[in-house]
Amino acid sequence: MDLKVTIGGWVVGFLVGITGMGGGLIMTPLMIFVFGVSPSIAVGTDLVYSSITKLFGAMQHWRQQTIRFSIVKLLALGSVPGALLGVSILDALRRVFSANDFQHIISDGLGITYLGLTGWMVWNMVRKRNAENDVSIRAAYARDPGRQKRHTVLLGFVGGMLVGLTSVGSGTVFMAALLVMYPLPAAQLVGTDILQAVIVTGTAGLAHAAIGNVNIHMVLQLLLGSIPGILMGSRISKKIPDAAIRFCILMLLMGTSMQMLGVL
């Protein structure tokens, strides 16, 4: 057993439990750059590992009653078909390009995705300083609940497709959008996001396993650390401010995108 893989699983699980985000952002590049896994296998392995890890986190949030199931249902209506579409696109690319070109395409795609998510996170940090815009958006949704539901399903579809293609986005994209769309306590947003992530990553992970993009041995080693990590993080999610953790994820994300694109 490789101890560093298990330790890496614990760190990522702990961060996901606290913030509801950061799993794929950290684990996928960790597997590629530290554990030496090919990009395609890293994507599929991360999805399977993530879905099982987040299931334990969702159970903890369910016990704490910090999950909004109505929002989870709307997100799943979009995220499940979106995830399947994303994996289908990836499989089509694998059939068209050579193995080497396919890995380069995934690597470049991950780099571009990470850059986009970096910008998204920076925008979200800046946006928090101006709460008036959030209030106006929520007021518009209060006047038209149907619009809020449609946008939630659309968010699920776009986020699900991103997860199927890259294994990232199940926390970062959904959390950032949910913060704007729903005036809920942070712990409820985290719990809701983690449960919907179980659904979307599980769907995408099974699809990746079907096309041979999963290293089951590594999944088991990661779970040895991630399950206690996410349980611990979920348990204290109400007590620890996550601003510093999000900043660290942002810096890691920016550096990883540069490496993926060959800038560093």
UniProtKB/TrEMBL annotation:
Q: Which PANTHER family match?
A: MEMBRANE TRANSPORTER PROTEIN MJ0441-RELATED, MEMBRANE TRANSPORTER PROTEIN YJNA-RELATED
Question: What organism is this sequence from?
Answer: Fodinisporobacter ferrooxydans
Task: Please give the InterPro entries that the UniProt record associates with this protein.
Answer: TM_pro_TauE-like, TSUP/Inactive_protease-like
| Superkingdom of this protein's organism | Bacteria
Q: What is this protein called?
A: Probable membrane transporter protein
Q: Where in the cell is it found?
A: Cell membrane; Membrane
Membrane topology of the entry: Multi-pass membrane protein
Question: Which family is this protein grouped under?
Answer: Belongs to the 4-toluene sulfonate uptake permease (TSUP) (TC 2.A.102) family.
Membrane-crossing segments per the record? 7-26, 32-49, 70-90, 102-123, 153-182, 194-211, 243-263
Q: Keywords assigned by UniProt?
A: Cell membrane, Membrane, Transmembrane, Transmembrane helix
Please state the protein's primary subcellular location: membrane
